[in-house]
Design goal:
The protein is mostly beta strands and 483 residues long. The chain folds into two domains: 303 residues, 5 Propeller (Tachylectin-2, Chain A); 150 residues, Exo-inulinase, domain 1 (Jelly Rolls, Sandwich). It contains no helices and 33 strands. Strand 9 and strand 10 form a beta hairpin. The radius of gyration is 23 Å and the shape is globular.
Length: 483
């Protein structure tokens, strides 16, 4: 059943959700001929699925406005269609596109999971000759990498991420679900084992290269673990096989709030852009959120653009919402050089905001604490606050509204120093059931679900223990994708 209005309580207005039923991991993120293709795990029959999954499909020309296409891949005799990736076979290395005018197409890789034994996990592929509109399963959906092709013989063997490897002049696949394995191929069809790395375990792996500090002569590989943590390092030959060598082995966090998981990046975006999308949930309560939302359960994060920069002597991912999201802005409220004290009237008292974008540059001044309260209503608000004594930024949803589980209504903090001019920079995206916060030009990100009442639309800025100065504050009302 289509659900065109999408105005149910908590329904995100500019995030991807399924019109009905279940959504989880983003899959197959790929750019091809002017379109961004995004797939996700889907089960439309219920908000509470079992192991049966399909690939739903959406396309966009701007990473902001999405068109839903028919279901791309559905279960077959070999099993359910679990997570994976997609690439553009630009030079027809597979030979699958001989009859396509430019001899190119999209190839998708997914885990085929036996419906009678979800631990019987194999890798399969499908391809499209018509810009992703229809899909052909290679060899009828039979696995291209079977259980017998796994040197580790580990039951957790899923989530293939495929990419072109310039140094090796070949395709590489990283697959995990448990221990990390690498495979290589010349034609995307026949794969041979490379490095087996049981010391690194994860699911939904990703591996991509970024220039350090924008210097293309100083590339670094980033190994992503389930969109929750990442390591920097190098991809090198050792004993004749390709392996990942971490710089330190330290697992760095993508996010300082709890609600990102299974995040992966797009392949093939021109100019080397690296853009990531997460399943916007914590893996400890993905089913419980469906007790609150209806007739859908699950949303994807906004697209975050990634760069690799040296911060305090250490390489770190910077994450910022993609610039294309500015096309959603419909009305602006701007403030500059405003001093706020504990006795000040609420500067934002005349505004109501249930979804929007906020950018702010704040001089802490003499204040002990300053911040925003969002989605304010009777005994409800979500707070974003900064403590100057501890240089701590906090996203506090303790009073944000409904709670899917015990412990959900909590606060999440991380130490963030003011910039070189002593300022705190915040960039926030608020939707009907989420808040995404980026601090200090993307140095830290906080992503959290919230479930306020529909009438909780108030907005506040406050200061405690002294005066804070708003250097600049822009509040944008945002359009809905659905109305």
């Amino acid at each position: 059943m289509q659900n065109p209005s999408r105005t149910e309580p908590y329904r995100p207005q500019y995030h991807i959700t399924s019109d009905v039923g279940w959504l989880n991991d983003p899959n197959g993120l790929v750019y091809y001929k002017g379109e961004y293709h995004l797939f996700y795990q889907s089960y439309r029959e219920s908000k509470f699925p079992g192991d049966v999954k399909s690939w739903a499909h959406a396309v966009s020309t701007d990473l902001t406005h999405w068109e839903e296409l028919p279901m791309a891949l559905e279960p077959d005799e070999y099993g359910s269609i679990w997570s994976g990736s997609a690439v553009v076979d630009e030079h027809n290395t597979s030979g699958l596109f001989d009859d396509v005018p430019d001899k190119s197409g999209i190839v998708a890789f997914y885990t085929s999971t036996d419906l009678n034994n979800h631990l019987a996990q194999r890798q399969a592929m499908a391809y499209s000759k018509d810009n992703g509109r229809t899909w052909i399963k290679y060899n009828g959906g039979a696995p291209i990498i079977g259980r017998e092709d796994d040197p580790l013989h580990d039951e957790a063997f899923r989530d293939p991420k495929v990419f072109w490897h310039e140094e090796g002049n070949q395709w590489l696949m990283i697959v995990a679900g448990g221990p990390v394995r690498f495979y290589s191929s010349q034609d995307l069809i026949h794969w041979k084992p490379e490095g087996m790395q049981p010391e690194i375990t994860t699911e939904c792996p990703d591996l991509y290269r970024l220039p350090a500090d924008g210097d293309e002569n100083k590339p670094k590989w980033v190994l992503s673990g389930g969109g929750v943590w990442y390591m920097t390092g190098d991809l090198k030959l050792a004993d004749g096989v390709w392996k990942f060598f971490p710089d330190t082995g330290e697992r760095l966090s993508y996010n300082r709030a709890p609600d990102v998981y299974a995040g992966v990046t797009f392949s093939g975006i021109p100019g080397g852009r690296r853009v990531m999308v997460h399943w916007m949930v914590n893996i400890s309560y993905p089913f419980q959120t469906g007790e609150i939302t209806d007739p859908w359960n699950g949303a994807l994060s906004l697209p975050y653009e990634l760069t690799l920069q040296t911060v305090e002597g250490k390489l770190q991912l910077m994450q910022n919402p993609v610039k294309e999201l500015s096309s959603l802005r419909v009305k602006e409220h701007a403030f500059q050089k405003v001093t706020v004290s504990p006795d000040s009237e609420n500067l934002l008292k005349d505004l109501a905001l249930d979804k929007g974008e906020i950018t702010a540059v704040i001089d802490p001044g003499s204040a002990e604490e300053f911040g925003f309260r969002l989605r304010v209503g009777k005994e409800q608000y979500t707070a974003v606050l900064y403590s100057t004594a501890s240089n701590t930024l906090t996203l506090d949803r303790a009073k944000s509204g409904a709670s899917p589980i015990d412990g959900f209504l909590d606060a999440y903090s991380y130490k963030i120093l003011p910039d070189g001019q002593g300022k705190v920079k915040l960039h926030m995206f608020l939707d009907w059931s989420s808040l995404e916060l980026f601090a200090q030009d993307g140095r830290e990100a906080f992503t959290a679900l919230i479930y306020p009442d529909t009438t909780s639309t108030g907005l506040e800025f406050y200061a405690k223990g002294g005066e804070a100065v708003i250097d600049s504050l822009e509040i944008y009302e945002l359009a809905s994708l659905w109305s």
